[in-house]
Write a structure and sequence with these properties.
Strand content: 15-25%
Oligomer: single chain
Number of strands: 4
Length: about 180
C-alpha cells in the first residue's frame, strides 16, 4: 500500500471488534521496531512499552475495573464490565509509557510528542498488516505506577489495544484541510 493510502486507511478499531486470533510475538516485535524509528529531539528516545498478553492483560483488566469501582463518583456496572471485557478481547495490549530525560534537556511535551509518533509508527504498521489498533488514555492511567514497575521519571500515558478483526474498518471523512489552515 502506498504511504498516503496507508495514512488515509488508519483507523481506531475497538476491542469489541476484535476476534480471537492470537497475535504472534514476531508481529508485536515488528510494531515495536517501527516505533523505535520515531523522531526524537536530542535522541532521548523517551518511548517505553510494556507488552501484555494472556494472563497479564486479564490482570490489568481486573486492576483497572477495581480501581474504577473504588474511585468512580458514579459507579456503572456496564463500564466496570467493559473495562475487563476490553482487556480480555484484545490480542495484546501495549502500555504506552514515556521516560523523561533525567537531564530535562528538552521540554516534556517534546518527549510526549516523540512517544506519540512512535505509537503512530506502530499504528501505521498495524494498519499495513491488517491488525486493528486503538489508543486509550483513561483517567485511571494515573494509577499505573501501582500496577507496573515504572522507572524514575517514567509514566504511563495510554494503552495501545491490538487485535485482528473481521468487520470492515469504519469510514472516516475528515473536515477539509482548508478549514484548518491559514496561509500568510
Amino acid at each position: 500500500m502506498e504511504l498516503k493510502d496507508l495514512i488515509k486507511n488508519r483507523r481506531s478499531v475497538f476491542p469489541d471488534q476484535y476476534n480471537a486470533t492470537p497475535i504472534s510475538k514476531e508481529t508485536i516485535n515488528l510494531l515495536l521496531e517501527a516505533a523505535n524509528w520515531a523522531p526524537t529531539h536530542k535522541r532521548t528516545e523517551p518511548w517505553r512499552f510494556k507488552v501484555l498478553q494472556g494472563e497479564s492483560q486479564e490482570e490489568l483488566g481486573v486492576f483497572l475495573s477495581e480501581k474504577f469501582k473504588a474511585t468512580a463518583d458514579k459507579f456503572s456496572e456496564f463500564k466496570y464490565n467493559k473495562i475487563q471485557r476490553n482487556c480480555k478481547k484484545a490480542g495484546a495490549i501495549i502500555a504506552i509509557c514515556m521516560e523523561r530525560d533525567p537531564e530535562e534537556s528538552i521540554p516534556e511535551w517534546e518527549e510526549i510528542a516523540s512517544t506519540a509518533m512512535a505509537v503512530q509508527n506502530m499504528w501505521l504498521t498495524a494498519t499495513d498488516i491488517g491488525l486493528g489498533a486503538y489508543w486509550s488514555s483513561p483517567g485511571l492511567i494515573s494509577t499505573m505506577d501501582e500496577f507496573f514497575n515504572l522507572n524514575d521519571n517514567e509514566k504511563c500515558i495510554g494503552f495501545f489495544y491490538l487485535g485482528y478483526y473481521d468487520a470492515t474498518a469504519p469510514e472516516r471523512s475528515p473536515k477539509p484541510i482548508e478549514d484548518k489552515v491559514e496561509w500568510l
